[in-house]
Write a structure and sequence with these properties.
- This protein has 2 domains: 5-122 and 295-324, Quinone Oxidoreductase, Chain A, domain 1 (Alpha-Beta Complex); 141-263, NAD(P)-binding Rossmann-like Domain (Rossmann fold, 3-Layer(aba) Sandwich).
- Helices cover 29% and strands 26% of the residues.
- It has helices at residues 44-51, 116-119, 123-136, 153-164, 176-184, 198-205, 223-227, 251-256, 267-270, 274-289, 305-313; strands spanning 5-9, 18-22, 32-41, 60-61, 65-73, 85-89, 99-103, 107-109, 144-147, 168-173, 189-192, 211-216, 230-238, 261-263, 298-301, 321-324.
- Strands 3, 5, 6, 7, 8, 15 and 16 form a 7-stranded mixed beta sheet that branches. Strands 11-10-9-12-13-14 form a 6-stranded parallel beta sheet, with helices on both faces.
- The radius of gyration is 20 Å and the shape is globular.
- Bound molecules: NADPH dihydro-nicotinamide-adenine-dinucleotide phosphate.
């Protein structure tokens, strides 16, 4: 049996900070489970944890989601058993490893019709889509919405889910291949924001009315212009910073632009209880059963996580990606 290992960082920085270390075999405490990973999700937030944009206590094993097989259950674990195939999202990280020990309440069973290899790519991203479009701003049938980076990991799931809800999707992206794929997944209007004025295009598409909501995970590069895409009393959902953190804005701007709403949500607050976690993950698995496809054609060995981060930050990944332990 190969020695358990992790890819750890001991300081924040560029992609050279990862080092392979052995993991001591730690038996699970009461209410914990020890998981042998099958697949690990690669997320943009991992790059913020690495760079220090979102500082984490060091040394740290990054990685917020994975799937695997339960090797051992601590005392008092009720709803899971050894041999179960589970997935998890955890804010305490530890995913970039062959094994992880987590609270049993953070894990949920992966349905048999979903591949554990690919599920790791969409747990965090899919639950993010669920809370963004169903609870943060509940999108209604017939509404037209703007979703940035539509061909990304979160974006391609959101695109399909918004279509399931009966919305018209305006999506932005930066190259021809991504634009074609977004269209294939149902995006009604793809805007090349590297070439076109997306505010003007949104106004043209909506006959000058603007959209009731913008979902913006790009951040600095798109935030201000996104505000100009909103109709009066519209909602700006700023949920990420792929292009850099958004500068502080005056609340007065929200008034002058049309009594707008601004929210900066994060997944942890929307799956804060075991019940919310189970509901969000179930909604995701139901949406998959209803036809949402996982677009995960990119896989890296966990040992090559530095290359995985470089590729993600270069905007070269379409859809989702995983790391293989
Ligand atoms: P993506 O796969 O979407 O990758 C980020 C994408 O952002 C790129 O592919 C690129 O798409 C776009 N982008 C625009 N400008 C830049 C830039 N300067 N540098 C790099 N990328 C840029 O990542 P994820 O799906 O993992 O995450 C999407 C966003 O959602 C991230 O901001 C992430 O932090 C956020 N997020 C937030 C959560 C929350 O609860 N708040 C939870 C999960 C994710 P293109 O080439 O098409 O422009």
């Amino acid at each position: 049996m190969s020695q358990p290992y992790a890819m750890r960082i001991s300081h924040h920085g560029d992609t050279n900070v990862f080092e392979k270390v052995s993991l001591p075999s730690k038996p699970p405490q009461p209410n914990e489970i020890r998981i042998k990973h099958i697949s690990i999700g690669l997320n943009y937030i991992d790059t913020y944890h690495r760079s220090g944009l979102y500082p984490v206590p060091l040394p740290a094993v990054l990685g917020a989601e994975a799937t695997g097989i339960i090797e051992e259950c601590g005392q008092d674990v009720q709803h899971l058993k050894e041999g179960d195939i589970v997935g998890y999202y955890t804010a305490t990280l530890g995913g970039y490893a062959s094994h992880n020990t987590i609270k049993a309440a953070q894990a949920f069973l992966i349905p048999e019709n979903v591949s554990a290899q690919k599920a790791a790519a969409i747990l965090l991203k899919g639950m993010t889509c669920e809370y963004l479009i169903k609870r943060c701003f509940p999108v209604q049938k017939g509404q037209t919405v703007l979703f940035h980076a539509i061909a990304g990991g979160v974006g391609l799931i959101a695109c399909q889910w918004l279509k399931q809800l009966g919305a018209t999707v305006i999506g932005t992206t930066s190259n021809t291949q991504k634009a074609e794929i977004a269209q294939r997944y149902g995006c009604d209007h793809v805007i090349r924001y590297d070439q076109e004025d997306f505010v003007q295009r949104v106004q043209d598409i909506t006959n000058g009315k603007g959209v009731p909501v913008v979902f913006d995970g790009v951040g600095q590069a798109t935030f201000e212009a996104s505000i100009d895409c909103l109709q009066p009393r519209g909602t700006m959902v700023s949920f990420g910073n792929a292009s850099g953190a958004v500068d502080v804005m005056s609340p007065g701007l929200l008034a002058s632009k049309g009594s707008l709403y601004l929210t900066r949500p994060t997944l942890g607050h929307y799956i804060a209880t075991p019940k919310e976690l189970q509901q969000s993950s179930s909604a995701l698995f139901n949406a998959l059963a209803d036809g949402i496809e996982i677009h995960c054609n990119t896989e890296f060995s966990l040992k090559d996580v530095a290359q995985a981060h470089k590729t993600l930050e270069s905007r070269a990944i379409i859809g989702q990606a995983v790391l293989r332990p």
